[in-house]
Amino acid sequence: MYRLIKKMKSMSPKVIMAWATAKFLAGLGIGVLLVSYLPDAMTNDSWINAGWVVFAIAIIIGIAVLRELNKKRSIVEKIAEKFD
Question: Which of 9, 48, 58, 79 satisfies CB 3.0 to 4.6 Å to 26 for a cystine?
Fold first, then answer.
């Protein structure tokens, strides 16, 4: 967990905003799905589909953020770091 927090501190604001957006959309998608599966919710299939679509978008954004967090530094960046 410490390593993740350390990486998040060094990330650009664009990546942090994408991470926050993914978390928000995941919560929204799960919320829509939970409400739509209640017995007395008067739901139809469009709300269930909307919940799954929002959740899928959150997963896609989350994968992109995790890829950015775990991206290896290039050899040029490693060499430049030694000279700083």
Answer: 58
